[in-house]
């Protein structure tokens, strides 16, 4: 039998390695920017075309490379960062594996120009698919310029897996932000398709945060600092009232290296306990300084995962540091709520339950509670419609026990005919409603959360928010599929300035937003003008509606695997549905009931929980031992 095991050619081995190191354009950008930092650059410029698919170029003014080093940098496992295995546990540089440039060159057309400081000439190297096409002296500026062109040109299958330009652009911006945050003392610029997105001057961390995320962050930053023999923590956390539903603006850096850690995120969230709802996420940028011998970063090629030899201590220090920062800056519950300007409705007052929230044995005074209560429900969704026959849902007279089950079942057919002409085609439960003796049904609210409707065979209890979300979700899904959403023009169109990543996201779903009724116009860099909103949404603040919709969309995107239309329909339904604690008129309650049972799936809400429960008369009688 002949031998069948053989060494792979370098080109194939590099392509295999590229599958882990270079997953998308953002992966290549991350590696190139980190190399520029390791080279001691004080200025880093990023140029991108077609979301990195056509070009990713990183230019730095670092120390540059000699001709030999430039050629060796494209060999696998060639690195200047480590020499012995012991060096793996004393790493303070970004790179050390020696795989990045070799992997990138295996799946792209790469051109490098580099010149050492003091050298007369630099070096030009051109590589395509691991094959060196040109190497020669060249006149160039000090430092290094690496251009990655036509990523995955020789791996069509990988290129086909890339997402749309706005999606890939969002990932590029995310990677840029992480590196730029880690080194505020270095100047960065980012140019996409000849348009400058960022121009960040060297400065303090707080200035870098504002430069990346916008001026809105100036007033919400709380300094955080803690020094221990084992670990030092520094950075900024956001005030509780500025927390969001989505995770994404949470940054941990260990020895200036960005990492992801759910365990450490829990430590921060635990420090905010009682200050914000459990489903909200605070903003934070925290830097951990620790002896490299106590961590292991050689876990994954992307190096965003890390292992600590004592995770519990790290957890406790972070939690303590954040708690101390929040307390020192007066954003914890105070004795006199009316004088504390840091409080908002997030934790002052639970509007959904219409009750005072007890924090540190302190109650919210009535005047603040009134301020935060919901306004009367006035949604144009509940305009008068042709809902004749809805009263058959309810029982207006007495003597329910005398109505036979046979009569109730007979009259169910009349009710279902009213509910929907297409009821035979819909799959939903058989509802045991009967025609009342009188046409005046009984409908009322309990705790401003539930609608109680009287039936011939008992009571129907409906969760008003969950039911309305179901109604709106099916309506918006239909509008998206038919592109039929009507729009109401804004009298004074507001403008919304977004983070670059959010702006790219909006551009990706712009057509779907238009189908819902939003009219958006680009209004300068990362800014949109809202000229119209969906006609069936009652809104007094178009900007707040749009920003809330975007946050909800990002939340669902991170938590669920949904397509754009499904996600948008769910997000707008969640955002515009009536909330618990909203007082409804009898007509509004009756309309909700009628519209709910006209839905294709009236049984369950968007989260899978029930929209209604039915309490049979027989069950009620058992409560009284009858």
UniProtKB/TrEMBL annotation:
Pfam families: DNA_mis_repair, HATPase_c_3, MutL_C. CDD domains: HATPase_MutL-MLH-PMS-like (cd16926), MutL_Trans (cd00782). Residues 442-584 form the MutL C-terminal dimerisation domain. GO terms for biological process: mismatch repair. Gene3D superfamilies: 3.30.230.10, Histidine kinase-like ATPase, C-terminal domain, MutL, C-terminal domain, dimerisation subdomain, MutL, C-terminal domain, regulatory subdomain. GO terms for molecular function: ATP binding; ATP hydrolysis activity; ATP-dependent DNA damage sensor activity; mismatched DNA binding. The keyword DNA repair applies. Residues 209-327 form the DNA mismatch repair protein S5 domain. Keywords: DNA damage, DNA repair. GO terms for cellular component: mismatch repair complex. Belongs to the DNA mismatch repair MutL/HexB family. This protein is involved in the repair of mismatches in DNA. It is required for dam-dependent methyl-directed DNA mismatch repair. May act as a 'molecular matchmaker', a protein that promotes the formation of a stable complex between two or more DNA-binding proteins in an ATP-dependent manner without itself being part of a final effector complex. NCBIfam families: mutl. This is DNA mismatch repair protein MutL.
